[in-house]
Amino acid sequence: MRPLKLYNSLTRTKDVFTTHEEGKCSMYTCGPTVYHFAHIGNLRSYIMEDVLEKYLRYYGYDVKRVMNITDVGHLSSDADEGEDKMLKGAKRENKSVMEIAKFYTDAFFSDCEKLKIKTPDVVEPATNLIPEYIEMVSRLLENGHAYIAGGNVYFDTSTLEKYYVFNDHDEEDLKDGVREGVELDTNKKNKADFVLWFTKSKFEDQALKWDSPWGVGYPGWHIECSAISIKHLGEYLDLHCGGIDNAFPHHTNEIAQSEAYLGHDWCKQWFHVLHLNDETGKMSKSKGEFLTVSLLEEKGYNPVVYRFFCLQSHYRKTLTFSFDALDNANVAYEKLVKKIAALKEDGPIDEEAKAPLRERFNNSMCNDLNTSMAITALYDVLKAKTNDATKLSLLEEFDRVLSLDLLNAAKELKEKEADIPQEILDLVEERTQAKKEKNFARADEIRDKLLAMGITLKDTPQGVEIIR
Ligand code: AMP
Ligand code: ZN
Questions:
Q1: Terminal Cα distance for the chain, rounded
Q2: Do the bridges between strand 237-243 and strand 62-69 make them parallel or antiparallel, or are there none, so unpaired?
Q3: Which of 34, 45, 49 to mutate to test the pocket of ligand 1 (most atoms within 8 A of CB)?
Q4: What is the model's pTM?
């Protein structure tokens, strides 16, 4: 296979992807802050990361993917200022923080399911690993990378040879002030320092607090991702993902504290997804009606069409959402499904014909995950001079990575077009179930019953085809 090249925010070049242990890939994703529904911008990041994970598996890597759920510590500003977002959500809805966390975590995974996003191998809520954060902060204090001031524990960025910064920020900016409009924390020795553990929060009503060697308090936002990643993926991380807004200060601070804790380099490859904006600009959860998967559904869209819309653009380009653009994606998706529905299982698969078509798909994906070119490769399959069975087999293969639900949608369309009575669909479903349960006598009985009604069943890799 050709080398897989991915843009790396750390080196600012397209690098050949390599891992610490051959054939294995440890992958960490910053998860959602569960104080509200995810907007479709957040979900753009998770869709592109999902395609990356699935392509790494397709490429042959044994991937272990870990994601946190931020249910504590993320303040209104990414730079340790303002109210805890979870507390804000709880107040808004008159519920406890844990109720809010449970409700919006479930809502997040339900959105992911609708968008065909696979759940990571490990999902760890931040509140699960308090002892690990305490251990990490203790070591940072011991080895001189942290200090206590005003009751809080801070990371001392001046102790590092280099406080890593990504694309959009340079060290000069950091010296002058972390963020405009953010009031200065006078406890900090250096402007870029950040909180590892809070005890003296300005907000006395912080809902979740734990005992610690530095007093009752709660962790800073960044520590969770370092500790969760190191616990589940070890001291060397192959790939770290997130939306571009996470690059600074969140990921910069993750690198600082992880490397200071471990005493060596931590993660070699950083994958950042550019933002989805709406036509008015930045997406925000604080604007009245914000764009969610449920809103798309209410308006009659199949969520997978939103995934298709995202894959038509490169992850490293800012994408603007509009309903007109989604309508265009919808038309294209329906046409594509119709073309696939017209394909027949017509004979043996031609493995030789597959090779050049597969090559186009891989060339696109290996070129910094060019999903829009990969979709073109998918159209090339439909146009290719080979039989339908070969095309179907390749489409199924590519869709294991793209997850556009193509063959299933085509099957549903065929069934709808055939206008098959519900009674027959129920019998087909019962037969599938009977086969699963190894009740072959019942399965055969149903097949014969349908035959007597003039219906033939054909088992295909995509499911049962109903022929009248
Ligand atoms: P949050 O729930 O705010 O912690 O964000 C969840 C994920 O969504 C993070 O990886 C963010 O970087 C990402 N994100 C936030 N806003 C956008 C956006 N407009 N477009 C794409 N990704 C975003
Ligand atoms: Zn994170």
A1: 44
A2: unpaired
A3: 45
A4: 0.88
